[in-house]
Amino acid sequence: EFKIALLAYKCINNYAPKYLKELLHVKSQPQSLSLRNDCDYFLLDVPKVPQLNRTERAFSYAAPIVWNKLPYLLRTCDNLCVFKKKLKTHYFDIAFESL
Fold first, then answer.
1. How far apart are CA 3 and CA 9, in angstroms?
2. CB under 8 Å to 73, separation ≥6 — which residues?
3. Could you tell me if 23 and 63 are in contact, meaning their C-beta atoms sit under 8 angstroms apart?
4. Residue 97, pLDDT score
5. What is this structure's pTM?
6. pLDDT digits over 33-61, tens only?
7. CA distances (Å), origin 16, targets 36, 60, 82
8. Could you tell me if 66 and 6 are in contact, meaning their C-beta atoms sit under 8 angstroms apart?
9. Burial of 14 (0-12, 13-18, 19+ CB in 10 A)
10. How far does CA 37 lie from the centroid of its chain?
11. Beta-ladder partners of 26
């Protein structure tokens, strides 16, 4: 998940090649602003569930799922080095929270 999240960050922030950036789409602005989550413009659209078994591992399907699970403060990072550091810390916290 680390590599997928990192590549998604690069796509969103124009560090990735064009062919990868075209696979991800930022969620459009919400129609109503009644819920607090509606103000989160750093989410990606998740495509419909694929019909074939192996297509759920495709970057265009897996990246939005991994990206949208990240905390808001991580998704809004504006520096690549800071994002990598916080991302590693986030995944280490998840891995070792039961210890």
1. 10
2. 86
3. yes
4. 84
5. 0.82
6. 555 555 566 899 888 876 766 677 889 99
7. 31, 14, 17
8. no
9. exposed
10. 16
11. 44
